[in-house]
Target: HIT domain-containing protein
Amino acid sequence: MSEAEREAPFGDPDGFERLWTPHRMAYVQGENRPSGPAPDDGCPFCRAPGREDAEALVVSRGRTAYAVLNLYPYNSGHLLICPYRHIGDYTLLDGAETAELSSLTRSAITALRRAYGPQGFNVGMNLGEPAGAGIAAHLHQHIVPRWGGDNNFMPVIGRTKVLPELLQQTRATLAESWPQE
Model:
């Protein structure tokens, strides 16, 4: 055992290196989650459009929906497409909302390809808490860029994702790469 291991102020030395991600504790503890299902229960997807884009991590705004970075991303560039209307069921979207959700998804994929060159994408929704929706009361579609090998030992063994840049920089890069339609 090394001198440093003998003098460790906490825990039992085990030879493992640690990559601390204290910012994830906010998610684990439920920070930024609504207190209930109503829009005025603190829904972050209802609050974001009323803030400045850079502050709220909004990348692009449409008439009925917007694109925003996930505050707790699975991968760098993880975007969410959200209708402005506080609604939790995809079948209750109107035609304009459905079309804009699709259009913003297409633009998001284009921007991510321009900015970061991912080799693939996971695109989808978790509808309802049993399906994994962290905020079930406000519909949101995930767009997660993927690269070969991005599911390496860090998330599989270490349960940690390594993100190469701060969310503000990712937002600025994607906003610059967003297609002008």
In short: Helices lie at 3-6, 25-28, 44-47, 53-56, 95-116, 153-156, 167-177. The chain has a mean pLDDT of 83.
